[in-house]
Design goal:
Rossmann fold, 12 helices, 8 strands, alpha/beta, 3-hydroxyisobutyrate dehydrogenase-like beta-hydroxyacid dehydrogenase, NADP binding, 287 residues, 6-PGluconate_DH-like_C_sf, N-(1-d-carboxylethyl)-l-norvaline Dehydrogenase, domain 2, 6PGD_dom2, 2 domains, oxidoreductase activity
């Protein structure tokens, strides 16, 4: 039996995952200014376009929600009343675990299955080779169906909705944070006319350590020198301000360095031990 797969949302991810014969719906077809362009996107990918979410998901076996983060919950609300009993609603959107759990309640109340899926890398150029993490009561079945569709790197994150999105969201704090910090640093370097020198200095001081080793080292330095480094970063912020660059990331660095420095902790050996010192078990967890 041929499985009916539907894409809700047809932006970069939808187009990357599409194949001829699939049906898609994107709310941009509801807007006259964007309708023609979106219909052209459907045609280029060889997919059929539905006129509404209700029309798209009616009778579908597998629904992939690929909308923007601010529309993830709304998409679940719009689709849920029209999902067939036992249909799988796979939420691939980059949203918080709490948002996914809220969407899951809506979908399961309608008699369908909700699956938390995290897309763990850019969809281009990987397309169906992009790594996916899958979580929820139907994770194993959903993973099998994703593989059958053509996704080549699918792993189970856990049995509960939120297990996959927790990994995605927390990882993003580092990945997107580095991107934002890169922009802040290099905009200031450009404004000061020292871009090449700053990049050369960074290259010379970059550590070859893996993430666990680097994280252990970073926490050690913050616990020992956080107060001094916060004071230094105040001067960094002043430097950026003098250049006309808003030190948004730098202000956060100041606060985090100062908070860890104020703990007055002599760092224990090892990353796990340091984390336990910084964030000891709460009473309800220790009981």
């Amino acid at each position: 039996m041929t499985e009916t797969l539907i894409l809700i949302g047809f932006g970069e991810a939808g187009a990357a995952f599409a194949r001829p014969g699939v049906t898609a719906f994107d709310r941009k077809t509801d807007v006259s200014a964007t309708r023609a362009a979106k219909l052209a996107d459907y045609a280029a990918a060889g997919v059929a376009g539905a006129d509404s979410a209700a029309e798209a998901v009616a009778g579908a076996d597998l629904v992939l929600s690929l909308v923007t983060a601010d529309q993830a919950l709304a998409a679940a609300e719009q689709c849920a009343p029209f999902l067939a009993p036992g249909a799988m609603f796979l939420d691939l959107n980059s949203v918080a675990p709490a948002t996914k759990r809220a969407a899951a309640r809506i979908v399961t109340a309608a008699g369908a299955h909700y699956v938390d899926v995290a897309v763990m890398a850019p969809v281009l150029p990987a397309r169906l080779a992009v790594p996916l993490l899958v979580a929820g009561e139907q994770a194993d079945a959903a993973a099998a169906r994703l593989r059958a569709y053509g996704f080549g790197t699918v792993a189970i994150a856990g049995p509960s909705v939120g297990d996959a999105s927790s990994i995605k969201m927390i990882r993003s704090a580092m990945v997107k944070g580095i991107e934002a910090l890169t922009a802040e640093c290099l905009l200031a370097a450009h404004r000061a006319g020292v871009t090449d020198a700053v990049l050369a200095s960074l290259a010379a001081s970059s550590s070859p350590a893996d993430w666990s080793v680097q994280a252990d080292y970073n926490l050690d330095r913050m616990l020992v020198h956080g107060l001094r480094r916060a004071a230094e970063m105040e001067e960094v912020a002043r430097t950026l301000e003098d250049l006309g660059i808003d030190p948004a990331m730098t202000r956060g660095i100041i606060a985090r360095q100062r908070a860890l420095g104020r703990l007055g902790i002599v760092p224990a050996a090892g990353l796990a031990a340091k984390l336990a010192q910084i964030d000891p078990p709460r009473a309800e967890e220790a009981a």
